[in-house]
Amino acid sequence: MKRRKFIKNASLSGLGITIGGSLKSCVETSSDEANVNKSKAQLPLVVATWNVKSATAKAWEVLTKGGSALDAVEEGCRLEEANENGQTVGKGGLPDRDGNVTLDACIMNAEGNTGSVVYLQNITHAVSVARKVMEDTPHVMLAGKGAEKFALTKGFKKENLLTDASKKAWKKWAKTSQYEPIINIENHDTIGMLAIDQQGDISGACTTSGLAYKMNGRVGDSPIIGAGLFVDNEIGGAVATGLGEEIVKTVGSFLIVELMRHGKTPQQACEEAIKRIVQKPKSNYKNFQVGYIAVNKQGEIGAYSIHQWFSLTAFQNGRNQTIQSDYFNKNS
Ligand code: ASP
Q1: Which among 60, 121, 241, 289 counts the fewest CB atoms within 10 Å?
Q2: Which protein residue's CA is at the shortest distance from atom 9 of ligand 1?
Q3: Is residue 216 one of the residues assigned to a domain?
Q4: How confident is residue 42, by pLDDT bands cut at 50, 70 and 90?
Q5: Distances, alpha carbon 139 to alpha carbons 131, 132, 223, in Å
Q6: Which of 18, 124, 190, 241 is catalytic?
Q7: How many A from CA of 295 to the centre of ligand 1?
Q8: Is residue 220 lining ligand 1, measured as CB closer than 6 Å?
Q9: Pick the residue with more confidence: 51 or 22?
Q10: pLDDT at 261 over 60
Q11: In a domain, 4, yes or no
Q12: 190 is annotated as an active-site residue
């Protein structure tokens, strides 16, 4: 990753972003961001994992036109899914070890309804298929060929998702076939997005091509409600990125929402969820990354990861900013 300049230890609250805990963060410097709006948090807002300013800007546009949080997160995720240069989401996503691009996605609305797709092939907009599962079927999850067949009946276009760039990367990897779910320091990965609309309603979505060069058939946390995403409109929402197996084992996003229900700020709740992973007996957390973001009903934001270089993008108070999250392993 190209290293950028950071202001160390600026707090999110000093950036016009409402933060519920003691988060210390590092913020990209720019003359624009130096002039931050210190006004009180107000709705709407959108937050997403990683540096995805175009996606949060798209969602913000929907929200400020009076659109729903659900439409906002879907539109924001779709933008990244269509971006062929992004190798972790939708078209252009890196394949499994056998060369198949397989997508996982889910969506959850303010009524507590949800839809998800796992192991979806040949369809770019997995998040929209997940929404159709939620709205047009009596089920919450469709997998593989069934999910693809359903998408085609709903008018989605069949496409080859393996771009030349991703094919090249996979062929290079296949020379050694060394599989390490590495600590991810890229600024682009699973896109998890949470939004609160002008009515104060919360929705979330999550979309990914999963871990690069995973075993064929592997499904991560991103389409599993409670793991990769959870929303409770009375309380708040949370989304995850990183090594899905660890997120599933601790039901991370549901845990964060429940901790907020019991009085923790989004920041405290994210920190506790990371602790549940790193404090497990025999945890080998030094070898993998997990990052969480959360919002509560008051529009406060939290973020925490195991290692450095996890970032989130927040569009709030009219400002779209990418922020480095605080992290557990200060020696990383
Ligand atoms: N959480 C995703 C998965 O395990 C990958 C990621 O966010 O890096 O499939």
Answers
A1: 121
A2: 210
A3: yes
A4: confident
A5: 11, 10, 14
A6: 190
A7: 20
A8: yes
A9: 51
A10: yes
A11: no
A12: yes
Distances (CA, A) of 192 to 77, 80, 311: 8, 11, 12
Supply the range of the domain harboring residue 131.
12-327
Nearest to 192 by CA among 88, 266, 268, 60: 88
What residue's CA is closest to ligand 1, atom 8? 242
What is the CATH number for 301? Answer: 3.60.20.30
Q: How confident is residue 267, by pLDDT bands cut at 50, 70 and 90? A: very high
Cα(109)–Cα(195) distance, rounded to whole angstroms? 10
- Using CA atoms, how far apart are residues 240 and 270, in angstroms rounded to an integer? 10
What is the number of structural domains in the chain? 1
- How far, in Å, from the CA of 121 to the mean position of ligand 1? 17
Q: Which of 14, 11, 33, 36 is nearest to 24 (CA)?
A: 11
Of 162-176, 184-198, 200-214, 268-282, the range with the lowest mean pLDDT is: 184-198
Answer whether residue 2 shows pLDDT above 70: no
How far, in Å, is the centroid of ligand 1 from the Cα of 244? 5
56 belongs to a structural domain: yes
Average pLDDT, the chain: 87
For residue 6, being part of any structural domain is answered with no
Q: Return the best residue to mutate from 206, 211, 310 for the ligand 1 pocket (most ligand atoms within 8 A of CB).
A: 211
